[in-house]
Write a structure and sequence with these properties.
498 residues, 1% strand, two-stranded antiparallel ribbon, mainly alpha
Length: 498
């Protein structure tokens, strides 16, 4: 028996913990490097005290990461079980260490609030406890945006792209972290795929920076909003989000939010062959849903908007922001008529394409659920008929259908239990949370959207929620970003036994 099989056969939990420790240590080093860039930004802005404390945060993170990585031997491979467990634990660890710059600089002195802001950043949720982010220093604000940009494509996927991580293990890690049913492979080795995905991500981000800089944003604002647009995060620099910027800026961000909601693997394939967009069934459905939603939203705004142009701009911006779970707002949609607010809640559950940086349930799953439901209706009419579920021209196998249905079931279960959880907190702490606020806060957290309705709408924030509610919503953000299963698997008996 080899040492590898001995380690697996006799000490499965120990082997799992060693793998988790090694990968976490490796990826914490990347987080430390990102913190260092934020410290450099603070120094350039002559915010030397902030720069020093952010550098201390980076140092603590780097020391813990390096020590953890050195204490254990590099695993030879990663199993599916270990991949899910590693990713599930990693994101909770990121949220703890990522809160250090807020705490040490005094920007967010509360541990609960700092972890909430960090979890919202890494998960690209965009929910904030800050009434006015413009009071933050440049370094802290850059770190806030950087957490979203790293979380958008995935911190662990970045590690896989840069490090020759564990051979075939990189695929298992990416499978657990990447948004969508399965990560799309552009090359036989997933490390090369990860590099290409990050290349596309960086290039499109830079293009948006220059386009925003050409408008009414300064260079720093352009960088911050580009980082948080391409990650579909929604952290901005102003208290009123995007409302105070020009129509040009709003349309640029609208376009790039739509782009960020598209699979980055599809972007890569379409780089030289734009026809690939039209051939992709999920892209066609994503575009169709977006256009229909904009038309309906614009129709509801025509009577109250100052002009038809502003109605179309607000409808397009906020619809795409909600559909892609970005969380930017060009208007206070919490004050719109009830019929439109019902539509807003519905858009919170959609999300962009699989393989994008968007949250939500993803267009692919919506399409498969619809096709499978229609096939079931046909079986009721024709009991002896044989019906094949197809999405576009491709046949959808039964295991895929079952996986999508299971995901939908867990998603709705978490939504309901989360809402009941907030109601329970309200009943015991007398915080005065209304049903609209509780429901939309949970939907916005699981879907990684950010602003909800009621007391957590675009004109408000999450600061007024009780501490216990913030911890619960922070956990829901991570569960939603990792698409439920990598976190739920941590609570299964099979993970911790031989």
């Amino acid at each position: 028996m080899t040492s590898r099989s001995l380690d697996r056969g006799q000490h499965p939990v120990r082997s799992l913990l060693k793998t988790v420790a090694y990968v976490l240590g490796s990826v914490l080093l990347f987080v430390a490097v990102a913190m260092s860039t934020a410290a450099l930004v603070a120094a350039v802005a002559s915010e030397f005290q902030d720069a020093a404390w952010i550098a201390v945060s980076a140092g603590i993170t780097a020391i813990v990461g390096y020590t953890t990585r050195r204490l254990v031997r590099r695993p030879r491979s990663i199993t599916v079980k270990q991949g899910f467990a590693t990713v599930g634990l990693a994101w909770f660890v990121f949220s703890i260490f990522g809160a250090l710059p807020y705490l040490l600089t005094g920007s967010i002195p509360s541990i609960t609030d700092a972890v909430f802001e960090t979890a919202s950043g890494f998960t690209t949720t965009g929910a904030s406890i800050l009434p006015d982010p413009s009071v933050l220093g440049h370094g802290v604000m850059f770190w806030r945006a950087m957490t979203q940009w790293l979380g958008g494509m995935g911190v662990i996927v970045l590690g896989v792209a840069i490090l020759p991580l564990l051979g075939t293990g990189g695929m298992q890690l990416a499978r657990a972290e990447s948004p969508g049913p399965t990560p799309d492979r552009l090359t036989p080795r997933f490390q090369e795929t990860a590099k290409r995905l990050w290349l596309v991500y960086v290039v499109i981000t830079l293009i948006e920076v220059f386009l925003l800089w050409a408008g009414d944003m300064n260079g720093f604002q352009a960088v911050i909003h580009s980082l948080t647009t391409m990650s579909t995060g929604g952290f901005g620099t102003e208290a009123d989000s995007i409302a105070g910027f020009s129509s040009y800026t709003k349309w640029v961000i609208t376009f790039f939010m739509f782009i960020a909601g598209v699979s980055f693997a599809l972007h890569f394939r379409a780089w030289n062959k734009p026809v690939e967009y039209g051939r992709n069934a999920e892209f066609r459905l994503y575009t169709f849903i977006t256009i229909v939603a904009i038309v309906v939203m614009a129709g509801g705004l025509f009577s109250s908007a100052p002009s038809a142009g502003e109605a179309i701009t607000d409808a397009a911006f906020n619809t795409i922001s909600l559909t892609t779970t970005t969380g930017f707002a060009s208007a206070d949609f919490g004050a719109w008529r009830p019929a439109l607010q019902i539509m807003i809640v519905g858009l919170m559950f959609l999300g962009g394409m699989a393989g994008s940086t968007a949250g939500g349930m993803k267009t692919f799953r919506i399409g498969v659920l619809s096709k499978a439901a229609f096939a079931d209706l046909r079986r009721l009419v024709h009991p002896r008929g044989v019906f094949i579920t197809r999405f576009g021209r491709q046949k959808v196998t039964e295991p895929v259908i079952e996986a999508v249905q299971s995901y939908f079931l867990f998603y709705m279960f978490l939504f309901m239990t989360g809402t009941f959880g907030l109601a329970f907190i309200d009943a015991n702490l007398n915080e005065g949370l209304d049903l609209v606020t509780a429901t939309s806060a949970v939907a916005a957290s699981i879907g990684n959207i950010g602003p909800g309705l009621g007391d957590v709408g675009p004109a408000a924030n999450y600061a007024g929620l009780p501490g216990l509610a913030k911890w619960m919503l922070s956990s829901l953000m991570i569960v939603g970003r990792l698409e439920i299963f990598p976190v739920l698997v941590l609570f299964t008996r099979d993970l911790w036994r031989r």
